[in-house]
Specification:
Elements lengths: L1 H25 L4 H5 L14 H40 L1
Helix pairs in contact: 1-3
Length: 90
């Protein structure tokens, strides 16, 4: 019985980490929304490096729930600014 519970817990942990890694790889080009706010930082001349992509994936592997919350907050702020800009133009 305890063995099955340990197996289930290991599966949940692996799925958590796998989802975080995939989330990190998928959101690399949008990382400004999760870490630096709504303004996109200029990319280096050589483009993004494998090391930068790997570091972002590692950070997201363990912190993806926090990254999702900060991304939702940034999306809310951007939508509010877009509505305000549209209202100011009309």
């Amino acid at each position: 019985m305890a063995f099955n519970q340990e197996m289930a817990l290991n599966i949940y942990i692996c799925l958590f980490l796998l989802f975080g890694a995939v989330f990190g790889l998928a959101t690399f080009s949008y990382q400004h929304i999760f870490s630096e706010g709504p303004h996109k930082v200029e990319t280096p001349e050589g483009g993004s490096t494998l090391g930068g992509r790997l570091l972002w994936a590692l950070v997201c592997t363990f912190l993806w729930p926090i990254m999702v919350l900060t991304g939702l907050n940034s999306a809310r702020i951007l939508a509010k600014r877009k509505r305000q800009a549209a209202a100011a133009n009309h």
